[in-house]
Amino acid sequence: MMRGSATGVRQRMAWLSHTVFNRTAIICLTLAVLAGCAAKPPATKSTPTLTPSAPLPWTVAIGSLTERGTSHICTASLVRPNLILTAAHCLYPPSRTLAADHLVFTPNAGRTPVFDPLPVRAVQVLGGQVHEGHIDALDVAMDWAFLKIVPAPRELQPLPIEALSSDQVMKRLAAGDHFYSAGFGGGDKAMLRQHDDCDPVDPRSLGLDLPGGITVSTCIIRPGDSGGPMVLLDTANKPHLFAVISSLGQRRGGLAPIGLGVSAGAFAHQLDRLLLSSAD
Q1: b/e per residue, 6-42, with b = 16+ CB within 10 A?
Q2: What is the 3-class SS of 168-209, one letter each residue?
Q3: Which intervals hold domain Peptidase S1 (predicted)?
Q4: pTM of this prediction?
Q5: Which of 7, 72, 108, 165 could cross-link to 60 by cystine, CB 3.0-4.6 Å?
Q6: Would you say 66 and 189 are in contact if contact means Cβ atoms under 8 Å apart?
Q7: What is the pLDDT of residues 110-127, one digit of tens each?
Q8: Average pLDDT over the chain, rounded to whole?
C-alpha cells in the first residue's frame, strides 16, 4: 500500500510538471506573439557618433583663437593645412600687442568631435596693425592675418577662399547660394554661433561710400566674432570663404548698425604668394 501510494504520487507529480511546462510554453508563446517573450527588442535607428575618421562637416575648420591662460578672444578658420585666417586686430588688444606663440587655435571648439588645441607659431602675413576698439573704415581692409599653426590637423579640410566683388556675391545669392556667417561671440563664447536672419548688402544701397576691400552685411557682430568667416554655400553645399568678420559699424541718424568684414580680394593674393614661395 505504501509502495503503491508512492508510485501514485510520482505519477501525479510528473503529470503536474508536464502540465506546468506546457502552460508555461503556451503563455510564453502568447507573450512572444504580443511582445516578444525573452526576445531582443526590435532594432531602432541610432544616431551615428561623429568621429574624426568619419566624414566631417565643413564647419569643423572654424575654431576659437585664444590667448594662453586667458578667456577667449577671437574666431579663426583653417584655410590651408598649416595656416589659419583671422582678424589682425586679434593681435592688438587695447594697450598691448600679443606674440603669436601666446595664441592657441582650437578647431570645432565646444562641439564634437573634439580636437586638441593647436599652438600658433608665427604670424605668416599681416594686413596691418589694426588696434581693437579703434577700427574705422580705413582699417577694415587691413584687418586680416594668416597665422601658422603646428602641427597641421590632417583630419580637417581647409576652407577654400574665393575673392568675390559685392556684385558677384549678390549674383551668387540670387542664383541660389546661401550665406553663412558665424563666430564665437555672444553668450559664454564657448561655442560657434551662426548669425541668423542677415545677409550681405551692397553698401551703395545703404547710401554708404566705403573704400574697396570691405564687405557689408546686416549681421550684428558680437565681441568674439572677429576673425569669423563669411561664406557662400553653393547649391552643392560647398563653402566659399569670401570675407572675414572685422567689426560692427555704427551709423548716424539712429540707423541700424552694420557688420563690416574684410573682403577676400584684400588678402587672397597674399595667400597665393605664400604658396609660391613655399614651392620654391
Answers
A1: eeeeeeeeeeeeeeeeeeeeeeeeeeeeeeeeeeeee
A2: HHHHHHHCCCEEEEEECCCCCCCCCEECCCCCEECHHHHCCC
A3: 56-246
A4: 0.79
A5: 108
A6: no
A7: 999 999 999 999 999 999
A8: 82
